[in-house]
Structures are given as structure tokens and as C-alpha cells.
Amino acid sequence: MPFIHTVPPEDATGTLKEIYDEQIKKLGYIPNYHKTFSLRPEASLAWRNLQSTIRSKMRLRRFEMVTFAAALALKCTY
Questions:
Q1: Distances from the Cα of 42 to the Cα of 20, 27, 45, 64, 70, angstroms
Q2: Contact by Cβ (8 Å): 6, 33
Q3: Contact indicator for 44, 19 with CB cutoff of 8 Å
Q4: Confidence bin at 74 (pLDDT 50/70/90)
Q5: Which of 4, 5, 54, 60 is the most buried if burial means most Cβ atoms within 10 Å?
Q6: Which residue blocks in the chain are alpha helix, DSSP H?
């Protein structure tokens, strides 16, 4: 049982439904990070824009290495 309240896909409306539908079409599932933003879908869009801006200035490999290094430093296993 999660300790973060999320909106399930069948209850999603508006912007959240659009985000969920896009992720299902693109990935075949809804990633947990999108579910955590489900009560504030505008924050999900802002996060996506921030990531896009950061990624646009570096190669994918570098972005992945920086992400991996940050996860190691934070002891994040997700």
C-alpha cells in the first residue's frame, strides 16, 4: 500500500488523463514518477520541461551518467 495518495488511471481527467494516456501510448505503462505528480499534473509538466531544458544542452550519455552519479550519491536504488 503506497503512502502517497495518487489518482488511479481510471479516475484521471483533464491534463492528468492526457499525461497518463501519453505515457501508456509511449511506454505501455504509467511510470511511478508520473503517478506521484497525479494530484498536481501541472508540476509534472513543469518537471518534464525542466528535464527537457537540461537534456537539450548535453548528450544523452552524459545526462544518464549524471543521473546515475546523483542516484549513487543519494543512495537512491529506484
A1: 13, 20, 5, 25, 25
A2: no
A3: yes
A4: very high
A5: 54
A6: 14-27, 32-36, 41-55, 60-73
**Is there a contact between 63 and 56 (Cβ–Cβ < 8 Å)?**
no
Residue 75 is classified by DSSP as: T
Distance in angstroms (rounded) separating the CA atoms of residues 24 and 11 = 15
Longest CA–CA span in the chain (Å) reads: 39
Question: Is residue 17 classed exposed, middle or buried when 0-12, 13-18 and 19+ CB atoms within 10 A define those classes?
Answer: middle
Interatomic CA distance for residues 64 and 46, integer angstroms: 20
Rounded to the nearest 10°, the torsion over CA 8, 28, 51, 64 is 130
Q: What is the pTM of this model?
A: 0.73
